[in-house]
Amino acid sequence: MRLLRLEDDGEFSLIEFISDNIPRYAILSHTWEADDEEVTFKDLVKGIGKKKVGYKKLRFCGKQTASDGLRFSWVDT
């Protein structure tokens, strides 16, 4: 399972958990924008997509995750 972590510098890291020891995480399971405005896994891996409208949603999710006392989130865009 791959989870997102919003780092202190505002960038995202993709962390892969292979074992059953997966930490608690928040789930964002919505697509609110046009398909070409949602940030994809490929965008995150390549470090692109920050100008897409959907990136704001990811940042919000990361900040809300932290304010809820969690470090990781999962997004299905």
Break the fold down into its secondary structure elements and pairings.
Elements (H helix, E strand, L loop, with lengths): L1 E5 L5 E5 L8 E4 L12 H6 L7 H14 L4 E4 L2
Parallel strand pairs: 3-4
Antiparallel strand pairs: 1-2
Describe this protein's structure.
The chain is 26% helix and 23% strand. It is of the alpha+beta class and 77 residues long. It has one domain (2-17, 24-75). It has a two-stranded antiparallel sheet. It has a two-stranded parallel ribbon with strand order 3-4. The longest helix has 14 residues, at 54-67. It is globular. This is Heterokaryon incompatibility domain-containing protein.
Short description:
By secondary structure, the protein is α+β, with helices and mostly antiparallel strands. It has helices spanning 41-46, 54-67; strands at residues 2-6, 12-16, 25-28, 72-75.
Largest sheet: 2 strands, antiparallel
Tell me the fraction of residues in β-strands, as a range. 15-25%
List the uncertain runs.
Answer: none
State the helix count.
2
Cα gyration radius (Å): 12 Å
Protein name: Heterokaryon incompatibility domain-containing protein
Based on the model shown, name its key terms.
77 residues; alpha+beta; two-stranded antiparallel ribbon; two-stranded parallel ribbon; 2 helices; 23% strand; globular
